Write a sequence for this structure.
């Protein structure tokens, strides 16, 4: 996916503020944070969204959850946080590379939409 923004970030062609990286996962700060902590956690493999996952690829979501937990501790989100993945047009997904938003550092809105 050479026109994918997040694939370009993974390739180092577009700069990002990385906060975690391993062989499968990258996490970096959202360029337009909606809370004091707003991190994007993405698989290095390109999948458009949750809708593109199958039985073979779905375990990467578990890997992402463990990275989220680790980052939540690192960024002192002991009081709680939110993990969000937007899917498709009605989900307001703007970047078509699977990603989870890790959001916290303040009391979040009770309503989610
Ligand atoms: P979504 O709307 O769920 O697809 O989320 C895409 C997110 O990517 C938004 O929160 C954007 O602020 C964020 N974003 C877009 N471009 C960049 C970038 N170059 N570096 C970091 N985050 C970005
Ligand atoms: Zn991509």
């Amino acid at each position: 996916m050479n026109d994918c923004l997040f694939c370009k970030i993974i390739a180092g062609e577009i700069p990002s503020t990385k906060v975690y990286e391993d062989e499968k996962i990258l996490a970096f700060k959202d360029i337009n944070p909606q809370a004091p902590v707003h991190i994007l956690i993405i698989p290095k493999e390109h999948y458009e969204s949750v809708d593109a996952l199958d039985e073979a690829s779905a375990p990467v979501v578990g890997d992402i959850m463990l990275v989220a937990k680790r980052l939540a501790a690192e960024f002192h989100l002991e009081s709680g946080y939110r993990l969000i993945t937007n899917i498709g047009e009605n989900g307001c997904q703007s970047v078509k590379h699977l990603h989870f938003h890790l959001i916290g550092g303040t009391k979040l809105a009770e309503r989610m939409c």
Q: What stands out?
A: The mean pLDDT is 97.
